[in-house]
Structures are given as C-alpha cells and as structure tokens.
Sequence to fold (132 residues):
Amino acid sequence: MGIKFLLVLPFLEIVFFILFGDVLGFINTLIVIVITGLIGLKLLFPVNKLESIKEIGIEPLNWFCNRLAGILLLVPGFLTDTFGIILLIKPLRSIFWRFVPENIKNFTTSSYSRKKDTQDRIIDAEYKDLDD
Fold:
C-alpha cells in the first residue's frame, strides 16, 4: 500500500492544489503553501539546538514526529501539510501511528526500552593491572 500511495501522491497533491486554488484563490493558496513551508523549516532547524538535543534524550518519539512533520510541511501540497499537522498534534499522532509498519514500531520501542533498561543495571567487575 505504501509504494502505491507514494506513486499516487503527486497526482493527489495536484488535484488538491487545483481544488484549494479554486476555493481560496491563487494568491491565497500560494501564501498558505509558503507559510506552511516556513513552519516546516522552523521545525527542521530549531533556533535553540541545545533544547533540541535534550528533547532527543527525553522524548525521542516526539522529536522524530516533529522532524517528520517539518519535512511534510516543507513539501508543497495540501495533503502532505495535512499529514504534517496531524503529526504536530499529540492526540492525533495515534492516527498516523496506525499506518507505520510493525518493524519500524518494534525498532523504535525496543531501542528506547533497551536504553532505559541499561541505565538501571549495575555491573560489578574485578580487574587486574597487567603492567605490574
């Protein structure tokens, strides 16, 4: 389903662009596309990079969803903008999460839980200095 959707996506974007252009007008449609592109740039390249690095450690899934939303908002088109906005709203992320393949879901949750488990373990070892 994913490959077929990616092949049909440009055609759907053109159809939505024409429909919104008829409803909003050409200039307003371009303004909306430019504004969403600027918001996407802001999400991809935050001003405070230190806070972004902290967010990776604290909430990696939130960081990932914000960056993916930034990419989707940067791509011109109303369908990708809609997906990007869905990713920005935390309660609506579950809609997007249903379409993510299982192997990616397992990778993100297992790598996060693995990192959390290793912080709780204490490994005790004895060592010998071989130079003596």
About this structure: Residues 110-114 have pLDDT under 50 and may be disordered. The helical segments are 2-24, 26-44, 49-58, 60-74, 78-88, 93-97, 102-120. The chain is about 75% helix and 0% strand.
